[in-house]
Amino acid sequence: MLLRQRTAEEPDLGELRDDSEVHPLGSIPLARVRDDLTIAERARRLLDELLLVCEPEVQDAYSAQVPNLEGKVVIVTGAGRGIGREHALALAEAGANIVVNDLGAALSGEGHDDTPAQQVVQEIEAQGGEAVANGENVADFAGAERLVAQAIDRFGRLDILVNNAGILRDRMIVNMTEAEWDSVIAVHLKGHFAPTRHAAAYWRERAKAGEEVRGRVINTSSPSGVFGNVGQSNYGAAKAGIAGFTLIVAQELQRYGVTVNCLAPNARTRMTEDTFDMGAPAEGFDPLDPSNMSPLVVALSADEAQGITGQVFHVWGGAINALQGWSPGELFASDEKWNADALLAELTERFPEGVAPTGMVAGMQAAGGQSLRAQ
Ligand SMILES: NC(=O)c1ccc[n+]([C@@H]2O[C@H](COP(=O)([O-])OP(=O)(O)OC[C@H]3O[C@@H](n4cnc5c(N)ncnc54)[C@H](O)[C@@H]3O)[C@@H](O)[C@H]2O)c1
Hints:
Elements lengths: L12 H4 L4 E2 L6 E2 L8 H14 L3 H8 L9 E4 L5 H12 L3 E5 L13 H12 L4 E4 L6 H15 L4 E3 L15 H31 L6 E6 L2 H6 L4 H21 L4 E7 L5 H4 L20 H8 L10 E5 L2 E4 L17 H11 L9 H7 L9
Parallel strand pairs: 3-4, 3-6, 4-5, 6-7, 7-8, 8-9
Antiparallel strand pairs: 1-2, 9-10
Helix pairs in contact: 4-11, 6-7, 7-9
C-alpha cells in the first residue's frame, strides 16, 4: 500500500543493492555499509533508499522523524574507548552536547588516565560538536553525583544518560576471588545505579516544576548476562542485574517522562579481542564494528521513541532483537501445597532428559547473531 511504481528518473533499488548483504536472519536486506561514512550518513542513506519507493506523504512523515538531538545534553559513561566512544561520536553527530565520562582504566578496572576521554572530546570538537571530559569512577556514588552536576553546570540541562562503562575479570567460580567478584559487580551494577539515581532525582525535580521531561536512560547488559556465559559469573550476574534494573527503573520513571532501555551488544573492542582471535573482514560489512551498536542509541534518544521503554535489545551487526526474558514457561500447578515426592515425580516426568541452560551461543544465534569465536 505504501509502495508505488518507480519512475524512470529514479534509480533501480536492485542496482543500488548489487553489493548488499543479507541480514543474518535472512529476511531483512542491509544496504552495503561504506566504511568512509559516519553513522548518521549511513542511516540517512538507508532511509533515502527506502523513501524513494514511498508515496510523497510517507516521505514527508519519515523525513520529519530522522533523529535530531540538537540541544540535548548526554552523558556517556566509559566513552573513552570501544562502544562508548562510538555512542558519543554518533550522538554528537546527531546534534547533542556530550559529557564524555571515562576513568581511563585498564580492562581489569585498575588505573586512571584522563587521556582517552580527552581524545574523544577532541574528536567531537573536530567534527564541529561540543563536548567536555569527565574522569569520575561511575561506581563512586559521590563521583556519579558530580558527573550529573557537571553536565547541568556546563550545558544547562541533562536529557540522556548512556550507562556503558565496564570492566572484565573472568574466572571460573571455583577460583574466583572476592576482589574479582566485588570489583566487577561494583563497576557494572553500582556503576549503573549511581549515575541513574542522580539523573532520576534531577528529572523528577524538573517534572515536579512543571517541565515536559523527555529523559532517557540507556543501559548496557550483555549476551553473557541474558544468556549466561561460562567463566563470567561475576560479569554475567551484574549484566543480568542490569537487565532487571532496566525493567524496574523503566516503570518507576515512566511517570516523570523518562524511558529506560538496555543494549546487549556485540563488538570487536579490547574487551572481546583478548578472548576471541578475531579480525575485521577484508571487505564488505563488518558486523562486529563497534559503531554498529550506536544507531539504536541515537534512535532511542529521539523524542519519537518516547513510548519505547523497559526493553533489552540484543545487537549483532544489523540484527537488533527485542529480547523477551524470563517469560512464563512450564507450569506445575496444584490446588494445594505440593508434596515434595509428588513434585519430584512430576518434574522427572515432564523433563525426562533433564533440563539445563543452552548456553550463550545458542541464545545469540536465536537472536540473530553468531558466536564471536566464529569471526
Ligand atoms: N565488546 C563487546 O562485545 C561487549 C559485549 C557485551 C557487553 N559489552 C559491554 O559494553 C560496554 C562497553 O565495553 P567495550 O567493549 O567498549 O569495552 P572497553 O574496555 O573498550 O571500554 C570500556 C570503557 O569503560 C571505562 N571504564 C571502566 N571502568 C570505569 C569506571 N569505573 N568509571 C568510568 N569508566 C570506566 C574504561 O576506561 C573503558 O574506556 C561494557 O559495559 C561492556 O561490558 C561489550
